[in-house]
Amino acid sequence: MDSTIIKGSFLILMQAANGDSLKRNIVVTNPHGFHMRPIVIFVETASKFQSSVFVYRPGDEKVNGKSAMKLLTLAAEPGTELTLEVDGPDASAALEALTEAILTIPPDE
């Protein structure tokens, strides 16, 4: 389990391995939520990897993290907890890159 990281538009809560999948929970702190500009940055980063990337609210259906339209359906407002799940040959690198992308999104984006 990773320690808590607070920076920019998201709060990283934890990381857990589940078989071949890696998961990390985040809380949206951007006052505008997880809207189109941050989503585009996320999708561009996710698309660089072979691994499957899914994002979901705990207990809800997973959406494709490489699809901006699917990510918009999450309607993630400030305070929303989301789970990132990455599965594939470069899962660890993908999760780290996605986390870095999330942490560098300015809070006013």
Distance linking N and C termini: 29 Å
Number of self-contained structural domains: 1
- Beta percentage is 25-35%
CATH architecture assignment name: 2-Layer Sandwich
Please give the CATH class: Alpha Beta
CATH fold-level label: Histidine-containing Protein, Chain: A
Strand tally, please?
6
Count of helical regions = 3
Widest beta sheet: strand line-up: 1-2-3-6-4-5
For CATH, the homologous superfamily is named as HPr-like
Biggest sheet features: 6 strands, antiparallel
The chain-level mean pLDDT equals 84
The geometry reads as: globular
What order do the SSEs take from the amino end to the carboxyl end, as H and E?
Answer: EEEHEEHEH
The residue ranges in which pLDDT falls below 50 over 5 or more consecutive positions are 1-9
The helix content is 25-40%
Radius of gyration: 12 Å
Structural class: alpha+beta
